[in-house]
Recover the amino acids of this structure.
């Protein structure tokens, strides 16, 4: 073999051969079954398989990324490191189509990049997005109606998805009503929804009506805007000319009724007049933005100022009615015509004036006497030539009667006459109602009464009021019909048993003056403050008589009761020997409250044998009551019994010492026992009673 060629081959191999330890390579495989899913759904590694293999001679790290359609979201495991010859399944992989995605075919690209060589590997994945949920609204797009008229319309709701769905249908503004408000539909089905449209009264122009369909089961929603044009279709105006005229009774006067159709539609108008007015036509058709005229002939049969009225109504819109009017002054051409100025409103008590226009409608100079129904004229006689006019002033100095009143002026010459009248409406501008509650009441001296004064503005205008009572003043303003209550605190410092009154005086800035008294009866002192003090076991003391033995104790039960109408505090006073004890020395009692107390009598050994007067008094600043007890003390009771004589004096209110009434009685003791046994028993009972009484009284 030629060594030269071998050497050259070795040199070329050395120059072109790549070192084995510098080789990097990988294989990316993306596989899946047919992927079809709905918007808002997600596919994951369960449907998408991503596998990478390291074919290089060294360990390598691969980073992964997803190429997604616009608006889509997704995630893939960021990186993986593989040894030479190692493979791995990339998990997780997630891809989500947004809820608003349109149906169609989309590509998702999975890319891997080698950290060592920088080489990128990629594979495309085909994904089909289905039209699962979709809804559409179909309408005419434009509607038209007339002012003050409603209309009905329809829209079609279409389920354009592949799934059954339920939609809530709504409309705005609020004067558009939808029926039904909910529709359920199969896939590719449609339903008709009714619209009731009632624009606000007087509204004209272009309004936007928005119809919305929102799925209750999915993300599907749709919106449709309908343009509504509201036109003044049937608007018209009417007038009568000339505005006034004077005509003789039996003659006629001609007027023109002008009807202007200012609406957007042609219309026919009906014309109705009183029986003494004849219309040239009873109806007339007028194009939009045009005028039509009808001649009216008036033939008055009575004198005076009359209204020439024509009532015009639209046949296409019958609720649209216009009354066009003029006036006619019908006179007796042989004599005189009186025309009195229009009605007036005044406040009660104010004056008013009117102008009486007197015209000689005859053919000769005439002297007319003028007579008003109320008030005075500045002249009562006028002399007028044919066609002459004289204005006379009628003055009413003061109005007293509230309400509408007829005011008239009569002109006459002995043969012919004329009279015209108008209305004077007298308002009760300033008036008030004062009510005092209570009007009559009773109280005790020292009480403070609450008297409510209710004031109402009974006039037609606002007024300012001053209320005076008992030296106090309250000022306030009230609108017409408004009321206010003032609460008066009245101290009762009058004489016992007297009748008195508090005068409430209401005045206003505009002349209202009302006086209303509140009567106060001051009750008698005994009715308000009265106390009763009595012996509860007094009946037993009436049956037996005996003496009170020294060394024996007797307890009397008393009762104190408030017999008055007011609560009171009482002091209990005992006037007698120091061996007379009372259980309570003060009480506070409400009306009719009753309490018990006890008087204990226990004469000591050194007590004198005689009759003792013991007085128990219940005393307050305003009431007094007492009982007097006469007790005869002996060394030993002759019969083994104990008794006391009782006298009571109740409800003494003059604070002078009372006079006993002579009620007598006794306490019962042990009867039929020996003196020794009685003495021992009495001593034991007395000692025990003293201990108990001291415990009760001085505890």
């Amino acid at each position: 073999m030629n060594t030269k060629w071998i050497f050259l081959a070795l040199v070329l191999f050395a120059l072109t051969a790549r070192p084995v330890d510098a080789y990097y390579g990988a294989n990316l495989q993306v596989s899946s079954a047919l992927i079809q899913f709905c918007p808002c759904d997600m596919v994951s590694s369960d449907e998408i398989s991503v596998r990478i293999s390291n074919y290089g001679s060294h360990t390598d790290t691969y980073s992964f990324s997803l190429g997604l359609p616009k608006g889509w979201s997704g995630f893939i495991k960021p990186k993986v490191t593989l040894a030479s010859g190692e493979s791995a399944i990339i998990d997780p992989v997630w891809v989500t189509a947004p809820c608003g995605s349109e149906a169609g075919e989309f590509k998702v690209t999975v890319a891997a990049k080698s950290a060592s060589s920088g080489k990128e590997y990629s594979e495309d994945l085909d994904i089909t997005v289905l039209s699962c949920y979709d809804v559409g609204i179909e309408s005419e797009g434009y509607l038209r109606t007339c002012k003050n008229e409603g209309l009905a319309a329809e829209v079609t709701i279409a389920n354009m998805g592949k799934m059954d769905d339920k939609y809530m249908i709504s409309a705005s503004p609020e004067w558009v009503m939808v029926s039904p408000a909910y529709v359920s539909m199969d896939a590719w089905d449609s339903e008709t929804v009714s619209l009731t449209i009632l624009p606000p009264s007087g509204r004209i122009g272009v309004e936007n009506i928005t119809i919305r369909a929102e799925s209750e089961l999915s993300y599907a929603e749709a919106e449709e805007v309908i343009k509504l044009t509201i036109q003044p279709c049937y608007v018209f105006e009417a007038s009568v000319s000339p505005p006034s005229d004077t005509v003789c009774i039996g003659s006629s006067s001609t007027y023109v009724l002008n009807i202007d159709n200012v609406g957007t539609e042609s219309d026919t108008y009906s014309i109705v007049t009183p029986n003494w007015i004849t219309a040239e036509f009873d109806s007339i058709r007028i194009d939009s933005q045009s005028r039509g005229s009808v001649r009216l002939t008036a033939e008055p049969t009575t004198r005076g100022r009359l209204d020439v009225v024509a009532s015009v109504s639209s046949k296409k819109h019958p609720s649209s009615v216009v009354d066009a009017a003029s006036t006619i002054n019908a006179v007796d051409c042989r004599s005189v015509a009186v025309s009195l100025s229009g009605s007036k409103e005044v406040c009660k008590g104010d004056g008013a004036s009117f102008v009486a226009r007197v015209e000689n409608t005859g053919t000769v100079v005439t002297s007319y006497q003028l007579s008003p129904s109320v008030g005075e004229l500045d002249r009562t006689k006028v002399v007028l030539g044919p066609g002459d006019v004289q204005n006379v002033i009628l003055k009413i100095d003061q109005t007293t009667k509230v309400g509408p009143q007829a005011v008239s002026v009569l002109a006459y010459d002995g043969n012919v006459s004329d009279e015209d009248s108008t209305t004077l409406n007298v308002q009760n501008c300033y008036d008030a109602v004062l009510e005092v509650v209570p009007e009559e009441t009773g109280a005790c001296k020292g009480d403070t009464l609450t008297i409510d004064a209710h004031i109402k503005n009974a006039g037609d205008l606002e007024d300012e009021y001053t209320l005076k009572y008992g030296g106090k003043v309250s000022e306030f303003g009230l609108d017409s019909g408004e009321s206010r209550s003032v609460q008066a605190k009245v101290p009762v410092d009058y004489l016992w048993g007297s009748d008195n009154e508090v005068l409430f005086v209401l005045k206003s800035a505009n002349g209202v003056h009302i006086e209303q008294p509140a009567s106060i009866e001051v009750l008698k002192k005994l009715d308000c403050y009265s106390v009763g003090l009595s012996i509860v076991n007094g009946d037993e003391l009436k049956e037996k008589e005996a003496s009170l033995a020294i060394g024996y104790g007797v307890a009397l039960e008393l009762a104190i009761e408030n017999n008055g109408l007011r609560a009171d505090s009482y002091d209990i006073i005992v006037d007698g020997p120091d061996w007379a004890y009372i259980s309570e020395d003060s009480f506070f009692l409400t009306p009719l409250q009753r309490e018990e107390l006890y008087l204990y009598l226990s004469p000591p050994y050194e007590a004198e044998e005689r009759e003792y007067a013991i007085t128990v008094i219940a005393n307050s600043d305003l009431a007094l009551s007492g009982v007097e007890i006469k007790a005869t003390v002996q060394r030993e009771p002759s019969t083994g019994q104990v008794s006391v004589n009782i006298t009571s004096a109740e409800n003494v209110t003059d604070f002078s010492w009372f006079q006993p009434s002579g009620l007598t009685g006794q306490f019962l003791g042990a009867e039929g026992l020996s003196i020794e046994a009685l003495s021992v028993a009495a001593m034991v009972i007395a000692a025990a009673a003293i201990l108990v009484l001291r415990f009760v009284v001085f505890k």
Notes: Helices lie at 3-16, 525-528, 675-698. The first strand starts at residue 26 and ends at 32. Residues 10-22, 539-546, 638-643, 647-699 have pLDDT under 50 and may be disordered. The CA atoms of residues 24 and 56 lie 4 Å apart.
